[in-house]
């Protein structure tokens, strides 16, 4: 993966480009109380991030069953192979391995489950890309320790990583430390297992939690190199291009300040230290952190590549009279030049090219697009005796985004691969609905929990298979 060997191939997807799909354990596995699994924060979030967490598991939490991947993984991975996947990104549920997070010994049943998943992937020659922590902090670590606000979580996470690396290190080359690590700013319970409501959480406590996660990520990266010398460790960022709403310099500076909030996470992962603009932010807002010399050494274990999710862009305005529109989950001002999805997320394919160029020029690290897609209300229809979904809107969305990936590669960026989000329908993270569907594979389950859980190939299934088979040449 030497940068010196990168060649601009005129815009074609490079040979060996890793095409595939992505999911998260809490959104598809189900079996929330099987196989020795402990409770995670997801088990008390029946409505996604829209309401405060419940005291305990509730019957209306669709994630308790998910799409039953825990029992149907072989069937689903066979479908991924039929699609032609070169890579499958999935997460390991921390509470399957350490049910309480602070256990002395790991849960063998949980480890054995992921061995079986890897067996199926190996059978079809699909490369695993593993997210170590994907919004699945063990509930005990949230309730008993205050989540990532507590420095002790660094040690618990390091122990968890050691078990994963020693068990699966010979089978998994690509690892991601934390999913969308910058999202903790907006969703502290979901992303950081922090039970204190955001409005009651001090900025110092929030950024101390972020610091602990960054240190843990650095330690995991060093540990991976010790145990798995051939492995590649990446960070994972929620990418969000920020445009000034007008040419006003005040709007440009406002957009810069907002962009810095996400850049900081990549800067620390790629450069090994806190950037000056973040230190200034701490000074200006009276934020004081406990940072040890060991912490500084841990942060210097920089990542091998940068992965990111991309769903939308936002605008920013310094004018306080400008409405902050609803919809975009990360805030910001709606862009009057863009259309939006059914859930209000603005659709901006060119923003993906902007992000890729921006990240490549900023960090000079290989990039991996590990989430991208559109949530939509799909309708099953019968065509030629087969049930399917005529999801031309999804084909159009993904085609337009992948064309921009091709453009960014022509611009000279090194892109390792692309894993479409929710490649099989899963329970939405933000709203905990089944009706917000992303997949190439329809799963017969409804928001009220009814349905057969049968799988059906959508129109986009054949389209994506053709894109992979032709290494992108089928794009329009």
UniProtKB/TrEMBL annotation:
PROSITE patterns, sorted: GLYCOSYL_HYDROL_F1_1, GLYCOSYL_HYDROL_F1_2
Entry protein name: 6-phospho-beta-glucosidase
Biological process per Gene Ontology, one example term: carbohydrate catabolic process
GO cellular component: a single term: cytosol
Entries under Gene3D superfamilies matching the protein: Glycosidases
Active site: 371 (nucleophile)
UniProt cross-references to Pfam families, sorted A to Z: Glyco_hydro_1
Organism: Arthrobacter subterraneus
SUPFAM superfamilies referenced in this protein's UniProt entry, alphabetically: (Trans)glycosidases
Single GO term (MF): beta-glucosidase activity
Family: Belongs to the glycosyl hydrolase 1 family.
Keyword Hydrolase assigned: yes
């Amino acid at each position: 993966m030497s940068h010196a060997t990168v060649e601009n191939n005129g815009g074609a997807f490079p040979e060996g480009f890793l095409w595939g799909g992505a999911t998260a354990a809490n959104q598809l596995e189900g079996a929330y109380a099987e196989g020795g699994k402990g409770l995670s924060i997801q088990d008390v979030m029946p409505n996604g991030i829209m309401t405060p967490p419940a005291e305990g598991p509730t019957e209306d939490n669709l994630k308790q069953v998910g799409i039953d991947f825990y029992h149907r993984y072989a069937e689903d991975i066979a479908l991924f192979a039929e699609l032609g996947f070169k890579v499958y990104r999935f997460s390991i549920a921390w509470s399957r391995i350490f049910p309480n997070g602070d256990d002395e010994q790991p849960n063998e049943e949980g480890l054995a489950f992921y061995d079986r998943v890897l067996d199926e992937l190996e059978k079809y020659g699909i490369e695993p890309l593993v997210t170590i922590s994907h919004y699945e902090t063990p509930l005990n670590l949230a309730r008993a320790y205050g989540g990532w606000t507590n420095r002790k979580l660094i040690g618990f996470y390091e122990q968890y990583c050691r078990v994963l690396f020693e068990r699966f290190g010979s089978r998994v080359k690509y690892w991601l430390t934390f999913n969308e690590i910058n999202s903790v700013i907006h969703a502290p319970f979901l992303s950081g297992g922090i039970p204190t409501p955001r409005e009651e959480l001090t900025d110092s406590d929030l950024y101390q939690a972020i610091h602990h996660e960054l240190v843990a990520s650095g330690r995991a990266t060093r540990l991976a190199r010790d145990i798995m010398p051939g492995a590649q460790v990446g960070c994972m960022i929620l990418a969000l291009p920020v445009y000034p709403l007008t040419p006003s310099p005040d709007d440009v500076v406002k957009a810069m300040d907002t962009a810095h909030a996400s850049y900081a996470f990549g800067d620390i992962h790629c450069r090994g230290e806190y950037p000056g603009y973040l230190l200034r932010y701490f000074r200006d807002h009276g934020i004081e952190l406990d940072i040890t010399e060991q912490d500084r050494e841990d942060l210097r274990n920089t990542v091998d590549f940068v992965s990111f999710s991309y769903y939308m862009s936002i605008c920013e305005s310094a004018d306080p009279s400008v409405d902050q529109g609803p919809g975009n989950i990360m805030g910001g001002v709606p862009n009057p030049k863009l259309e939006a999805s059914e859930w209000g997320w603005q659709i901006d394919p060119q923003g993906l090219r902007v992000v890729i160029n921006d990240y490549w020029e900023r960090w000079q690290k290989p990039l991996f697009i590990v989430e991208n897609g559109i949530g939509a209300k799909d309708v099953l229809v019968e065509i030629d005796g087969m049930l399917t979904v005529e999801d031309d809107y999804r084909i159009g969305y993904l085609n337009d985004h992948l064309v921009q990936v091709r453009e960014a590669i022509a611009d000279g960026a090194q892109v390792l691969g692309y894993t479409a989000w929710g490649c099989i329908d899963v329970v939405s993270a933000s709203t905990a609905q089944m009706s917000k569907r992303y997949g190439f594979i329809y799963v017969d389950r409804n928001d009220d929990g009814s349905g057969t859980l049968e799988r059906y190939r959508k129109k986009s299934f054949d389209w994506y298979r053709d894109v992979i088979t032709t290494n992108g040449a089928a794009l329009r």
